[in-house]
Design a protein that fits this description.
The protein is built from four helices and 13 strands. By secondary structure, the protein is of the alpha+beta class. It folds into two domains: 12-145, Beta Barrel (Thrombin, subunit H), CATH 2.40.10; 149-263, no CATH class. The strands form two sheets. A six-stranded antiparallel barrel has the order 2-3-4-7-6-5. A hairpin with a 2-residue loop joins β11 (186-193) and β12. The longest helix has 18 residues, at 129-146.
Length: 286
């Protein structure tokens, strides 16, 4: 099942381009990103030999590991040193993230043990359309966050009295932070993801979501996304934001990473300020 039904809805042609091996790029998976991996490997004895306990097919043994990079055609993970695998062996990897589970057939591309850690590279085998789409959606979230780096230019708000700094991803995403020009204190941020804008303010502890779908004016972001405020699209945007915020690189300053992680968690106790017009006030994430 796809991780997102209303955003990142890749079509077959787009998926084929993303899976193009000639354009393979690896994306870093940070330790704060709550993505877990489990791989099934043939059971072995203490000498690394496959078990001969019965005449039944070897079901294998599950090993939990830590992912450290992903690409459009495979992934790499760290396993306990007792794990044993050989290049070319067929296996299955289970990826789990925030209640989602994705089971993918794959092949061992390489396996080595170094410094009491096993490093395993996997090449993804052809799966069904739903599996491929879900994996590429997950990869997109990883790519957006992990590749944000300082940049010049791009469309974003200028805010009077504040200094802006921008970070651009290799994917269509632009992160802008605003600071006090005198002491550098962080006042807020804005993350533009395609047709959507997600904003966090230091003085308002909730994520605000805007859309330019109606106006078509990416410079203004003048209309809050009321059409989606209680629907699944905003829920998906909040989920995507969470995954991006939990996988930011060191190129993004520590205080900005911490603020975005704060906004990655829902705050049900917050409501939009009273007294604002219903057509002007931003929609707060729930």
């Amino acid at each position: 099942m796809a991780l997102f039904k209303h955003i990142l809805d890749f079509k077959r042609n787009a998926m084929a381009k993303l899976r193009d091996k000639r354009k393979t790029k690896r994306f870093y998976v940070g330790p704060a990103f709550p993505l877990k991996a489990t791989i099934v490997l043939p059971d072995t004895d203490t000498m690394g030999r496959k078990s001969k306990a019965s005449d039944k097919p070897d079901p294998g043994r599950s090993w939990g590991g830590s992912l450290f990079n992903m690409s459009n055609v495979g992934l790499s993970l760290q396993l306990p040193p007792a794990a044993v695998a050989r290049r070319g062996e067929k296996t299955v990897v289970m990826l789990s993230l925030d209640g989602h589970e994705l089971k993918l057939p794959c092949t061992i591309a390489h396996f080595r043990i170094q410094n009491a850690t096993a490093y395993c590279g996997l090449t993804l085998d052809d799966g069904d359309l739903a599996q491929s789409k879900a994996y590429l959606q997950l990869l997109e979230a990883v790519a957006i966050g992990s590749t944000l780096a300082p940049a010049e230019g791009g469309i974003a708000h200028n805010r009077a009295g504040l200094r802006s700094e921008k970070y651009k991803s290799v994917r269509p995403a632009l992160l802008t932070a605003w600071r006090d020009p005198d002491n550098g204190e962080l006042a807020g941020f804005e993350l533009v993801l395609g047709d959507h804008c997600l904003r966090g303010e230091a003085k308002r502890p909730a994520l605000e979501i805007f859309s330019n779908k109606a106006e078509g004016d990416r410079k203004a972001w003048s209309a809050p996304s009321f059409a989606f405020s209680e629907g699944v699209e905003n829920e998906e945007l909040r989920k995507l934001f969470r995954w991006v915020a939990l996988n930011l690189p060191r190129a993004v300053p520590t205080d900005l990473r911490e603020m975005m992680r704060f906004f990655a968690h829902s705050r049900a106790d917050w409501a939009a300020p009273a007294g604002k017009g219903s057509n002007k006030a931003p929609v707060a994430a729930k």
